[in-house]
Amino acid sequence: MTVTLQDKGAAFAALHEAPGVLLLANAWDAGSARILAGLGYRALATSSGAIAGVFGRRDGGLSRDEALAAAGAIAAATDLPVSADLENGFGHAPGEVAHTITLAGAAGLVGASIEDASGDPAQPIYPLEQAVERIAAAAEAARALPFRFMLAGRAENWLRGRPDLDDTIRRLQAFERAGADLLFAPGLPDLDAVRTVCASLSRPFNFMVGMPGRSFSVAELEAAGVRRISLASTLYRAAMSGLIGAAREALEAGTFGYLERGLPGAEISRHMRG
User: Fold this and answer.
1) Fewer Cβ atoms within 10 A, N terminus or C terminus of the chain?
2) Within a domain: residue 268?
3) What tens-digit pLDDT sequence spans the chain (274 residues)?
């Protein structure tokens, strides 16, 4: 049976409304998407940093067309719903952000996050009014799609050298009022901050794993009020760590012990098509 975007969008929305925490695995290509689906994940996301790495670039180094093409390939690889990390929407103006959401829907995605980081070192975070206008435009574009599309409004203070919890909450609440379906604030310093943020919101909060010393357990995050956990670039980093370790062993030690530590090829290929 063909799974439509209407099916994926409805399933993704339902996962956010179901009891418990939704664990969202971030894929970086079709192969990783198929492995994650085969392991039992119920939904996937992209990671801008991981996808940039596939292109041999650093995070933030892809164009909108490149990012959406890569995300579309991930979405087409399985029947699972996929949400994309769309950075700042690939444009400063609200209209550009809205267009990015429209293109994301056309690429087969049923969710996306839009952040308030500007990319300008002199002013790394958009002023609140501009940030809210951008989320509002994205939400309007999402509602215009012919299927359910989950929009996450993302406050970047803690990743951009502005560790201001009050301002982060102010921004998330404003994004919520502007139409974001869920909220996102990477880099919160501790569980107390996570609890405070979750208690201040009426819509689901997404916690991003990946900050050393700040990646708490699923049980701890659920108890703090988190409704969704995304693995960000951590699985990609784990895979690349394995690659670098194995390649160094072969090159520097002249041994191949990584063959004993790795999975058999058949275990990996069983998740693939063809």
Assistant:
1) C
2) no
3) 799 999 999 999 999 999 999 999 999 999 999 999 999 999 999 999 999 999 999 999 999 999 999 999 999 999 999 999 999 999 999 999 999 999 999 999 999 999 999 999 999 999 999 999 999 999 999 999 999 999 999 999 999 999 999 999 999 999 999 999 999 999 999 999 999 999 999 999 999 999 877 779 999 999 999 999 999 999 999 999 999 999 999 999 999 999 999 999 999 999 998 6
Q: Give me the amino acid identity at 140.
A: E
What is the rounded CA–CA span in Å between residue 225 and residue 204?
9
Is 11 a domain residue? yes
Q: What is the CATH number of the domain that holds 207?
A: 3.20.20.60
Asked if 51 contacts 71 with a C-beta cutoff of 8 angstroms, the reply is yes
- Burial class of residue 146 in the structure, from the number of CB atoms within 10 Å of its CB (0-12 exposed, 13-18 middle, 19+ buried): exposed
pTM greater than 0.85 (yes/no): yes
246, 224 contact by CB (below 8 A): no
CA dist 17 to 11, 14, 79, 227, Å? Answer: 10, 5, 20, 9
DSSP string, 95-132: HHHHHHHHHHHHTT-SEEEEE-B-S-TTS-B--HHHHH
The structural domain count of the chain equals 1
Q: Do the domain assignments include residue 262?
A: no
- Domain assignment present for residue 261? The answer is no
The DSSP code for 147 is S
Its domain, for residue 105, covers: 5-236
Could you give the C-alpha distances from 11 to 5, 72, 107, 200, 219, in angstroms and in order?
10, 18, 18, 26, 23
